[in-house]
Write a structure and sequence with these properties.
Layout (H helix, E strand, L loop, with lengths): L5 H13 L3 H14 L3 H23 L2 H14 L4 H13 L3 H14 L4 H14 L3 H7 L1 H14 L6 E5 L5 H7 L5 E5 L3 H13 L5 E4 L15 E6 L11 H11 L1 E8 L2 E10 L1 H4 L6 H6 L7 E4 L5 E3 L8 E2 L4 E7 L3 H7 L3 E8 L5 E3 L1 E9 L5 E3 L13 E3 L6 E3 L5 E8 L3 E5 L7 E4 L1 H8 L1 H19 L8 E4 L5 H8 L4 E5 L3 H13 L7 E4 L11 E5 L11 H13 L1 E8 L2 E10 L1 H5 L13 H4 L6 E5 L7 E2 L4 E5 L6 E4 L6 E13 L7 E2 L9 E12 L6 E6 L5 E6 L4
Parallel strand pairs: 1-2, 1-4, 2-3, 4-5, 7-19, 20-21, 20-23, 21-22, 23-24
Antiparallel strand pairs: 6-9, 6-10, 6-13, 8-15, 11-17, 12-16, 13-14, 13-15, 17-18, 25-27, 25-28, 25-30, 26-32, 29-33, 30-31, 30-32, 33-34
Length: 726
């Protein structure tokens, strides 16, 4: 091989790449570049494609050593190349090597701050390392200062030895240290939080606090310097028990606490209440109008295929109506070691009578808890309490079937505590026919305005195609979460449809709908992977979907859509939607800070410096049903999806204020004959995306700030407020 010319190496490299032998092609390109370095610029793009293919091959083979060796070789040829750094960063992210992945993406952004993909994946790394609920916790003054007061009331100076279970950033340990206990050990199993806690306690001059990086359930008393007299903890999820608090306390009583050891909080209590909320129900149940369109019997319950419960900020829903009195489900004493042990081996039913305050439909059951920190200090997540703790959301039992009730005619619901781990709603297996589908499919179908727009456009598309080809020859592709366009075309008699659904429940649902319309299975195919569209099959009409449910552009679907338009659309065929505008607006959204930036005033200690290193630049998943914000500018067009270009856009200000984000949404024009439909509305199948300003920008009506739109080659984008002129 060493006797070959550079040209011969290139020819063989391209031949091997075409044959799928990326490993051989990679080595041949390296040899060619070594023989004749000036070839690097001409064949850089092809080399990077081969490198990417090789990485995925080696990942499938599990050959990590060769993968990293190839990475180092590639960087030797193209030092600092963003594609090389990005592909390895994504590999590290997929395999949970978060800090190493952070380094890769940070390197790219140091050289090119406009890189959209590096920014996106760096945000994914930060979200994986520190979940956003930590910011809610640390910014919740009610929770923080209630715990602080309870700890001051409980800790006996110079006598108590304290164990902080699930220490997080060490805040509760620092509260305890102010009370001068004999010793303090904080236990935190998440390494990045444990490392942060170690730095924070030193930054705040608490040198007596020891932080242990481990799951408390794997520890013995020797690991923490002997058994402790007081355990403090906040290991509670929205339904109180979901973080395994009972199992952790059981282990602590047996292994980590002294014989008369105490627990703070001393107890908890869980409550439920029946509610009616039409807007909330679009998250969990398919509405009757869409059932009728899909030929589904109205008595069939189409519901989410999710877990036992969902967590929701219930007070944000303005159409919510409380239909019953609140009722206590269970009360637990965290200092009763015997009761905790018993609950771990039982499935306990709690039959609760709910008394309707009025007649009507109960949509679902909401739940919340009280924490009794001491006999004198408590906190609550009760949604009607103005001074509630906002660190936790409320529980929605999404498997509850809507129920008609009569005033003062009580009905019973049953909740189960399953082996002390999860509290769930027990449902009657004979209570009507149930079909479960994914959250994205549910939201898509419950967006009545968008579904109506698609169905009306399908009629026009059908008539257009009939002018050029017999109906029995028409072949359709529909990449939507549910192929509503494709269904309308099948009903009209077209030859075939290709669609896709990732999870089996969605595939079965699509099949059931087609069967209800007597559409034979040989007229459609359902892929379980959108990459299966990338074949030789030609289509007369393609309805694409390039979004993920949280409002981002889906990079995989952008790539597939681009391929289909160029390679699989028959000349003169329809490619729908006709266009999609990206809209942007300067806003101030208080909750964006609450979920992404810690303020030391909310904790009483210096925590922000370390926690805010994990701030993200994008906050997606903003539900327009309940996202509260102040608009500071008129909306502006940032570009068109699939044709985005880097540009600087003037943004007219309509209200003085501090802009902390650019809020983005889409205007979808399904066909050239239908009006655009915006996604920044309640019940839209897409959430909003906020590109966060750091630092925040003071704007005024007499100034016109610029928005910088950055775009990568795959047409993914991000926006930045240009604060230089401010």
């Amino acid at each position: 091989m060493s006797k070959m010319s550079a040209k011969e190496c290139i020819i063989l490299a391209r031949s091997n790449a075409a044959a799928g032998n990326s490993s051989k092609a990679f080595e041949l390109y390296l040899l060619a570049f070594d023989i004749l370095p000036r070839l690097k610029s001409a064949y850089k793009a092809k080399f990077l494609t081969v490198f990417t293919d090789l990485l995925y091959f080696l990942e499938r083979e599990g050959d990590q050593n060769t993968l990293f060796a190839s990475y180092k070789k590639a960087l030797t040829v193209f030092p600092g190349e963003s594609v090389i750094l990005s592909e390895v960063g994504k590999y590290l992210l997929r395999h949970h090597h978060y800090l190493e992945a952070w380094y890769q993406f940070q390197q790219i952004l140091r050289d090119d701050t406009s890189s959209v993909n590096a920014d996106f994946y760096l945000n994914e790394v930060k979200l994986s390392l520190v979940q956003r609920w930590h910011y809610r916790m640390l910014n919740d003054k009610t929770r923080n200062f209630s715990y602080h007061a309870a700890i001051r009331e409980t800790v006996e100076s110079g006598k108590d030895s304290v164990l902080d279970l699930g220490a997080g950033t060490g805040l509760l340990s620092m509260y305890a240290a102010k009370c001068n206990p004999e010793s303090i050990v904080g236990v935190e199993m998440v390494a990045v939080l444990s490392s942060m806690a170690q730095r924070l306690v030193l930054d705040n001059n608490f040198h007596s606090i020891r932080i242990v990086t481990e799951s408390s359930q794997s520890l013995s008393d020797s690991d923490i310097g002997g058994k402790k007299s007081l355990l403090i903890t906040e290991m509670f999820d929205v339904a109180l028990f979901g973080e395994g608090i009972i199992r952790s306390l059981d282990h602590a009583f047996k292994n980590l606490l002294q014989e008369k050891g105490r627990v703070l909080p001393i107890g908890g209590e869980f409550f439920i209440r029946g509610i009616k909320c039409d807007s909330l129900m679009t998250r969990y149940y398919l509405n009757n109008k869409i059932k009728a369109l899909l030929n589904i019997p109205l008595e069939t319950n189409i519901m989410l295929s999710n877990d036992l419960y969902d967590s929701v900020d219930v007070p944000l829903y303005e159409d919510l109506l409380y239909m019953t009195d609140p009722e206590s489900v269970l009360k637990i004493d965290f200092n009763n070691a015997k009761d905790l042990e018993t609950k771990l081996s039982q499935v306990v039913d709690y039959n609760i009578k709910l008394n309707p305050l009025m007649s009507g439909e109960i949509s679902t059951i909401v739940g919340w808890f009280n924490l009794y920190l001491t006999n004198n200090i408590s906190l609550t997540t009760n949604p009607v309490c103005e001074n509630r703790s906002t660190a936790w959301q409320q529980v929605i039992f999404s498997n509850f079937l809507p129920k008609e009730v009569q005033q003062n005619n009580p009905f019973t619901v049953t909740l189960q505590l399953i082996n002390g781990l999860r509290l769930g709603l027990k449902t009657d297996t004979e209570d009507g026919m149930k079909i479960k589908i994914s959250e994205y499919l549910m939201r898509f179908l419950n967006d009545e305005k968008y579904i109506e727009t698609i169905t009306s456009s399908a009629d026009a598309a059908f008539m257009y195609l009939l002018q050029h080809i017999p109906v029995s020859d028409i072949v359709i592709a529909d990449l939507s979460p549910f192929p509503i366009f494709g269904l309308m075309m099948l009903k009209g008699g077209v030859k075939s449809l290709s669609c896709y659904a990732i999870i089996k429940e969605d595939q079965d649902f699509i099949k059931n709908v087609f069967q209800a319309y007597d559409i034979h299975q040989d007229r459609y195919e359902i892929f379980n992977n959108p990459n299966h569209f990338l074949g030789d099959k030609k289509f007369h009409a393609i309805y694409y979907n390039i979004f993920d449910p949280r409002g981002n552009l889906d990079r995989t679907m952008l790539r597939i859509t681009h391929f289909l338009e160029i390679n699989n659309l028959i000349e003169g065929g329809l490619f729908l939607p006709y266009n999609i505008k990206v809209m942007g607006q300067l806003i101030h959204g208080p909750c964006l800070d609450f979920h992404n930036r810690v303020y030391d005033a909310n904790t009483g200690y210096m925590i922000a410096h370390h926690m805010n290193k994990f701030q993200v630049s994008i906050n997606n998943g903003l539900d327009f049903m309940n996202f509260k914000y102040t608009a500071l500018s008129n909306p502006v067009i940032l570009g068109y999806c699939r044709h985005m270009k880097p540009q600087i856009i003037e943004c007219p200000v309509i209200k003085d204020g501090i802009a902390n984000a650019v809020l983005c949404w889409y205007e979808i024009k399904v066909s050239q004959y239908t009006p655009s439909i915006a996604t920044n509305r309640p019940k839209s199948f897409l959430d909003g995306v906020a590109f966060l300003a750091d630092p925040q920008v003071q704007v005024a009506v007499d100034k016109v700030p610029d928005i910088i739109c950055c775009v990568d080659d795959d047409h993914s984008f991000k926006v930045i407020i240009d604060n230089v002129a401010q």
